[in-house]
Amino acid sequence: MKIRDVFPAVYAGRYSQEVETFWEQDYHPADQHLVFVLEDIFTVECALAQELTLDEFRKHINLIFDDIIIAKKHPAMVLPFAGLDLLLLIHGAKAAGTYNQRGAMLDVFDCLTKSLYGRTMKNGEQYESQPERLWRFANPQSWQFALGVDVLQIITLWLGQLFYYSRSFSGLSQLCQDFLELSIKWAAEVIRATTMDGAFLLTQLYAWTTEYQQPDKAKDILDIISTVYSELSWGPLSAEKQHLGVHLVLTSKQPAQRESIYAELKAHGTLSAQDKMQIACEIDNSIDAIKTNFDAILTAVREFSHEVEARAKTLIDITYEKSRLFKVLNNVILTLCQHAATTELATLLTAYYHPDADWAPRDSILFILPNAKDGVLYCAKGGLAVHEQDNVVAVPVLVDMANQALSQLHVLRGTPGQITPVPERTIGFPILPLGREFERTVSSFYNLKKLGQLDISGVTALCPFNFNQLPLQALMLKELQVTFPIYTSLQNKGAYLRPRHVLFWQGSSVTSEMEGNALAYIFEKAGAKLTVLIEGTATKQDFIDAYRSPDYDIIWVSSHGERGYYEPDNSSFALSHTEAVSLTELAAITVQHPHVRLLFLNVCEGGANTQIGEFLNVGFGHVVTSDNQDVLSHLWMADSLVAMLLGALVAEGLCQSGATYFSAYQSALLTLIAGEAGIIDKLNSIEPETQHTAITALVDRLQYSSNADLSNILKWGSAVYFS
């Protein structure tokens, strides 16, 4: 039996031809070097897959996991001293590092659990952490059948990636708690910082205990880091010393030590772009220091952004990685919000996302920071309004309510005791009976009436941080009768023209045909051309060609959509029962249009964005908005009747004199808020004398619908607009 026979799927899908002799070797479980050979094969495969798209990397990583797990089930393939379990651990530790670095945090959970337990955990599954499954490999007796493998380093790498993932993305917090004591001892006494992985583990242990409010342990770890730093010299371990030094500059409570180490780092170390940005943003967060050093902060932020854009493969990869590290800006953003420094806020965000920007950032943005410790902060045009509340209490209540109402699994960082029930329905399915309680909870948390303390008459855009699954625009319209586009492009926008040519994709949604009939009538009446591509006769390539074309002012899709909860880059909308367009595919296409066009995805969850960072994340509305494209879609699984009515009302609004895409959205949502009578009046006003059959069909469907409770925000409030 050859190695290729034991791992047939990996062999068939292999990228490398450099280790063919290894594949042809006999698989002898008693061979003391076999684990080392297998590690080499899989490491080469992962290194090559790492150069590919995230989705291709993900598939190859899972292929290797699956083949190892299958091999474990065959007695003839089992290795002494749990050798295949060690191979899973090796593979998971290395793959988790790549996922973490690329910002694909949602993949890390499966990667770490598969590597430790040899299987995928189900949502909400209760399991014992079993730390001994890791620590058994610290026994030197097990190493005799893994000659050549640095087992100590693998354990250290795995732990570092576990604690980094948990403190950054909140998953596996209980597992970290169970591993914590022995991990601290391991890092302090066994590994220390003799390798970069050891230095990384020390800093992640400190960060995790700080995030999860264990100050005594955090202080002990910081003392260890300080001692180890002083013991290391600038020589073979310069990288390790530098890593610990940067951490001490950012965390030391002793100003003299901080200044001394910073001077030493500049003299001896080669600080990375990320190091420079962290130090610039976090060394002193007072408003005076930020304003004095603001140019230096911007320079460091731009350098980091340039470095990411030069290294990352695609726009999706760039978005993942910038989302992951956005937290570096959090303290600066908090201070700027607290002092209503809106010009600096806009400039900072622009520098992070568009380092080569040659335009002046907007001065008309409303910023919303919902999770400041003492409440929700609103700032616009140099003014500040605060809804004071204890967010240590209020945020978990809000998140729990959103989890229940939207069937989500949002876990908070720093709360290992948080209980997140598994949704009873499909993830993302709105639970209508909870609609009113959900609306009350969100409304109470934000208290949007506080905006009355600000002059928002000149505001043109909205930048909300965190909680991007919540219907803020819908609530603002209901409570204040005004809202603004969510400004995800952070770019100067081109001209907005009245739509002349609309591309409509008629998919398989139950109301797509009725929606298309209404659009045909409304746009024809207004003198706009409508081109219809129908599922079954048109192809995916037809849609892609239309999306690339500069001929259409609106690309309008009425079909089914699906958010990739665990693979957000694979969020998609269906063109037919057999063809779909993913976010990855759409993000790879540069919009060629001389003016701003609208992408209207009238599909479920097309406006949802999986939250990795505090601002821009991975989803259609955050990734494919640009200087010449806005996006309108839905935050959750939309009601088919409401989606159809929204479409007709947006079309009606677009045909009004002086209308813009956003004003049409705003008008449509206000009409939905008005309820059935208001909707019917608006539809009837299109042709008061003689109603067209396409319009009467909408009215009839609304009047005879048995569940058209349009007062429920989970019905009417899903639409979201990005600019």
Explain how this protein is built.
Helix 11 packs antiparallel against helix 12 and helix 24 (512-526) packs parallel to helix 28. The longest helix is centred in the first third of the chain and has 20 residues, at 83-102. This protein starts with a helix and ends with a strand. The mean pLDDT is 91. A hairpin with a 5-residue loop joins strand 9 (572-574) and strand 10. It is built from 32 helices and 13 strands. It folds into 5 domains: 1-149, no CATH class; 171-268, no CATH class; 271-354, no CATH class; 362-479; 501-722, Rossmann fold (3-Layer(aba) Sandwich). By secondary structure, the protein is an alpha/beta fold. The chain has a 6-stranded mixed beta sheet, sandwiched between helices. Strands 3-2-1-4 form a 4-stranded mixed beta sheet, covered by helices on one side. The chain has a 3-stranded antiparallel beta sheet with strand order 8-9-10.
Number of helices: 32
Unreliable residue stretches: none
What's the structural domain tally?
5
- Determine and state the CATH class of the largest domain: Alpha Beta
**What is the count of β-strands?**
13
Examine the secondary-structure arrangement and name the CATH architecture of the largest domain: 3-Layer(aba) Sandwich
Question: How big is the Rg?
Answer: 27 Å
Sheet bearing the most strands, described? Answer: 6 strands, mixed
Beta-strand content estimate: 5-15%
CATH domain fold name of the largest domain: Rossmann fold
Query: What general outline do the C-alpha atoms trace?
Result: globular
Arithmetic mean pLDDT? 91
Structural class call reads alpha/beta
Q: In whole angstroms, how far apart are the ends? A: 59 Å
Helix content: 40-55%
Strand neighbour order, sheet with most strands: 6-5-7-11-12-13
